[in-house]
Design a protein that fits this description.
Shape of chain B: globular
Order of helices and strands of chain B: HHHHHHHHHHHHHH
CATH topology of the largest domain in chain B: ABC transporter involved in vitamin B12 uptake, BtuC
Helix content of chain A: 25-40%
Structural class of chain B: mainly alpha
Largest sheet of chain B: none
Helix content of chain B: over 70%
Largest sheet of chain A: 6 strands, mixed
Oligomer: heterodimer
Strand content of chain A: 15-25%
Strand content of chain B: under 5%
Largest interface: A-B, 34 and 23 residues
Radius of gyration of chain A: 19 Å
CATH class of chain A: Alpha Beta
CATH architecture of chain A: 3-Layer(aba) Sandwich
CATH superfamily of the largest domain in chain B: ABC transporter involved in vitamin B12 uptake, BtuC
Order of helices and strands of chain A: EHEEHEHHHEHEHEEHHEE
CATH class of the largest domain in chain B: Mainly Alpha
Number of domains of chain A: 1
Chain lengths: 236, 339
């Protein structure tokens, strides 16, 4: 399958379907069959630093050293631009500062990561990915452990950044309604295989979800986007 | 840029502390040389300076053949152990890692025991200890790599534990074969920095290389702190960085072990204290550990050779005896919520 530049692809699927694994393979972190091409070039043949300037990746549970400050964490995104034994330049610090400003994190710059709330942590991880200035963002469950409001805020922010900067976004999302509302294209994985892909209304259908998630659902549409409701099975 | 200034300030303070401890180490000793004369004698050795110190030739000998190399060796060993400990902690992302984690101590213990028991010749001990330390780490690394795929650190630590137990078992067995040498083996284990100029010269090149390599990798260890997957996605060759730092830290440990035995506590406590005082970044933790470890061991050696003078305490006993309460004190003073 292909994802056009500037689009948002959400990878969905039941637990254990291979969503995170797919993302890691796209990042070249795992050995894999088949090929992942960016602009026609295979990611596994790229040098790590080159790939780091093209693709930014945030895992589902990023390791956030509690004593590291927000600014120090965010500037790690500049790593692919810094030669092996060199240090950050003034430009790297400028980029980091402007990203923190953009994500309303400037006031947090000197705060240790251990003192942040869940929503703030997610924004900080996003900041680190943005300082990488990569045209492609791979985010594994960016809304994990966030409450409703923060889930929405993070995804709105992501969409705004995507539109402003023309970023291509690939996320895994376990919340199907959110996936349907934000992504242009969905990829449904089941048992390690692509079970369906296409625009949300073609993938988020009752038959497909029933089959692959083993769930009783009802799909309605709001503003043309599918919304998934879990329905308690009758007579049990 | 306030933090940049803070780091410079911290480094400057550490240098002052180190120089102070070295001055104390040079001025005080069992031979009872007058501090003023020692000072003059030292200044006399500077280029273009000529002062009559009033020290007798014998006293000059005590100063330049015993005290000066001893202070330098203590400083070098302490610095090496502390920076190696910091390096291991960065590689394993674990503040409890110490320089002996991967079998360096057990390897050196075995070869030294073999040399003492089989040949009875102490002259070969430093070389044997160096080879043993390097061999132990190599064994653990080879084992860890065959047992664990993907280069994770947990397997490596377990391999280190296995190698340590195995080599220690052999060492104990060899020791039992010749119990009368037990005292010599034991006193080597407890540590000593009285090796003089030859030993200082022997380890200097290895020390220099390992320290330079580790200091150069401070920023990269900071990147590794966010995890292997993310570090790799940031364009870092995580396994390669880890290997370089491990090699350098192991070389530093082997150098220290070769000339000083198995001095405990320095490699784990000094980086920890530094982290409490100066922050998490390896860019500051590594150089400060080097300086702080050097100062700490110079002081420990001073205590070791003066408290019961003319008898000497094993320096390893002092590091633990002085270090443990100091460590507790620092932990209390910088008390905070664990996250």
């Amino acid at each position: 399958m292909a994802v056009p530049a500037g689009a948002w692809l959400a990878v969905i699927g039941p637990n254990g379907a291979g969503k995170s694994t797919l993302l890691k393979a796209m990042m070249g972190l795992l050995p894999h069959d088949g090929e992942v091409l960016v602009g026609g070039r295979g990611v596994r043949r790229m040098k790590p630093r080159e790939r780091g300037r093209l693709i930014a990746y945030a895992p589902q549970n990023p390791l956030l050293p509690p004593d590291m400050t927000v600014a120090d964490y965010a500037i790690l995104g500049r790593t692919p631009y810094i030669p092996y034994l060199a240090r950050e330049t003034a430009h790297d610090r400028d980029v980091t500062r402007s990203v923190l400003d953009r994500l309303d994190l400037a006031a947090f710059a000197d705060r240790p990561l251990g003192h942040l709330s869940g929503g703030e942590r997610q924004r900080v991880v996003l900041a680190r990915a943005l300082t990488q200035q990569a045209p492609i963002l791979l985010l594994d469950e960016p809304t994990t452990a966030l409450d409703l409001g923060h889930q929405q805020q993070v995804l709105e922010l992501l969409d705004r950044l995507r539109l402003d900067d023309g970023l291509t976004v690939v996320t895994t999302l376990h919340d199907l309604s959110l996936a349907g509302q934000y992504a242009d294209t969905l990829l449904l994985l089941s048992e390690g295989h692509a079970a369906a892909s296409g625009p949300p209304q073609d993938v988020l259908t009752e038959p497909l979800l029933t089959r692959h998630f083993d769930a009783h659902v009802q799909v309605t549409h709001t503003h043309g986007r599918p919304v998934i409701h879990l329905i308690r099975p009758a007579n049990r | 840029m306030t933090r940049h200034r803070f780091r410079l300030w911290a480094l400057g303070a550490a240098v002052v502390v180190l120089l102070g401890s070295m001055a104390a180490g040079l001025l005080v000793g069992a031979a009872g040389l007058a501090p003023g004369s020692v000072l003059y004698a030292l200044l006399d050795r500077l280029p273009f300076v000529s002062i009559d110190s009033g020290l007798l030739p014998v006293e000059q000998g005590v100063l330049f053949e015993l005290r000066v190399p001893r202070v330098l060796l203590a400083g070098l060993v302490g610095g090496l152990l502390a920076i190696a400990g910091a390096g291991y902690q960065g590689v394993f992302r674990n503040p409890l890692a110490d320089p002996y984690l991967l079998g360096a101590a057990a390897g050196a213990g075995l070869t030294v025991t073999l040399v003492i028991v089989v040949t009875g010749d102490s002259g070969a001990v430093p070389v044997a200890a160096f080879a043993g330390a390097v061999g132990g780490v190599f064994l653990a690394y080879a084992l860890g790599n065959t047992a664990g795929r993907g280069g994770g650190t947990a397997t490596l630590v377990l391999a280190g534990v296995a190698v340590t137990s195995f080599l220690t078992a052999i060492q104990t067995f060899v020791q039992q074969l010749k119990v009368e040498e037990l005292q010599r083996v034991y006193s080597w284990i407890l540590g000593d920095v009285g090796g003089g100029w030859p030993q200082l010269v022997m380890i200097a090149p290895y020390a220099l290389v390992s320290v330079v390599v580790m200091l150069a990798h401070g920023r990269l260890l900071d990147v590794l702190a966010v995890g292997d997957d993310e570090a790799t996605s940031l364009g870092l060759h995580a396994r390669r960085v880890r290997l370089f730092v491990l090699l350098a830290a192991s070389l530093a440990t082997a150098s220290a072990v070769a000339v000083s035995g198995l001095i405990a506590f320095v490699g784990i406590v000094v980086p920890h204290v530094v982290r409490r005082l100066a922050g998490w970044s390896y860019r500051i933790v590594l150089p400060l550990s080097l300086l702080g470890g050097a100062a700490f061991l110079v002081i420990a050696d001073l205590v070791a050779r003066t408290v019961l003078a003319p008898a000497e305490l094993p320096i390893g006993v002092v590091t633990a005896f002085v270090g443990a309460p100091f460590f507790v004190l620092v932990l209390r003073l910088t008390r905070r919520v664990e996250t």
